[in-house]
Amino acid sequence: MSKAFYITTPIYYVNDKPHIGHAYTTIACDVLARFKRLDGFDVKFLTGTDEHGQKVAKAAADKGIAPQDLCDQNSQNFRDLAKTLGISNDDFIRTTEERHKKACQALWKRLEDNGAITLGKYAGWYAVRDEAFYDESELTKGPTGEKLAPTGAPVEWVEEESYFFPLSKWQQPLLDFYDANPDFIGPKSRFNEVYSFVKGGLNDLSISRTAFSWGVPVPGNPKHVMYVWIDALTNYITALGYPDESGEMGKFWPKDNPVAMHVVGKDIVRFHCVYWPAFLMAAKLPLPKRVYAHGWWTVEGQKMSKSLGNAIDPNMLVEKYGLDQLRYFMMREIPFGNDGDFSEAAIAGRINGELANAFGNLAQRFLSFIGKNLGGILPEPGALQPADDELLKACHGLLAQCRDAIDRQALNDVIERIWEVVRAANGYVDVQAPWALKKTDPARMNTVLYVLAECVRHLAILMQPFVPTSAAKMLDQLAVPEDARTFAHLDKAHAMKGGTALPTPTGVFPRYGDPKAGKGS
Ligand code: MSP
Question: Is residue 16 in contact with ligand 1, taking CB distance under 6 Å?
Answer without folding.
Answer: no
